[in-house]
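Hello Y.,

Per our agreement to keep a running log of every chain we model this quarter, I'm adding this entry. I've kept the format consistent with earlier entries: sequence first, then predicted structure.
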Amino acid sequence: MAITPKQKEIEQLKNENARLLAALNESEFECQRLEIINSNLESQLNEANRELEKNIEVLQSLKSEIENIVSSLKEK
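Predicted structure for the entry above:
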């Protein structure tokens, strides 16, 4: 039984559809993977910002202490 041009075209379309669905699934998986990575990076960034804020507070406190020491030394 010979394959008609119409059947051949339908088969090609089925194959193309299957290929596109596989690519879509792969894209969706990659998108989920990137969302997880983004979420992890956001958490790391938030933690780094908290640490930076703490470090800034410590440095400001040290600066104030140093200024007080310098001031008291100048008075002597």
